[in-house]
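Task: encode each sequence below as structure tokens.

Item 1
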Amino acid sequence: MDYRVRDIMEYIIALVNEFAKRFDLSDRQAYRYIRHHQGIAFIEQNYGIIHTLDFSEAVDSVANYCRRSGGRL
């Protein structure tokens, strides 16, 4: 299924915001962390599934992915 780029970008922004809240980071810090550990690509590639999860589960998924890519949060 094809998704609009705008929908994906809006979702990424919302998810980064929730990630920042969970780990007590600024939005900028959270975005840089997620991007550095290839989490943005993970979200884009798995958008069809991840956007159906509640934000708590989605943040868990991104955090776990980033940990497997060397992240420490």
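Item 2
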Amino acid sequence: MKTIDQILKIRATVLYVLNAFPDGIDYIKLFKILYFAQRQHLVEYGRTIFDDTFQARQFGPVSGFIRKGLKLKELSKSLSPDFELFGNGINIVINPEHQIIKSTQQADIDELSISEIKCLDRYITEFKDMKSSDISEIPHEDSAWIKAYERSKKDPQMRSMTILEIAEAGGANQNTLAYIKENLKLDQYLN
């Protein structure tokens, strides 16, 4: 279960990406921007942009909470308060080929730090003009995705990618990895 602050941060992050695509984007492009920005932020700053677990899916890493929220919204399912808060300002248009996710509100950029915006902007720019089919191939070279995807073949419950695996896949140095481990222990202790 996410706290309201965590949900608002996730929502702000998703809306920030969607605001960069006025015509909307599909699931693949959204999730790849989010994953690579998250990975880069871990490598450079030792912290995630938003608090969620990425899962190794067939077409690459996918944020579990965001995926569930978007799917519930897409299927017009009754949303719990958590997902209702997350989905506010997000629309999904179903096209014959795929779904397009659009924003109907501006992101609350007070929720995002300068470093987080920098990482998001990097991958928004990098992937903006790429086809989603080309983007989907990129994570298949990512060691965190490969490890989790292989685990999930044996046990579907093991598809989660750890923060340390993601940081290592991005090339984090030993000092950054030690910093991340300490923060993970602290977070675990405080929860």
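Check on item 2: The chain has a mean pLDDT of 92. Strands lie at 54-57, 60-63, 90-94, 99-103, 160-161.
End of task.
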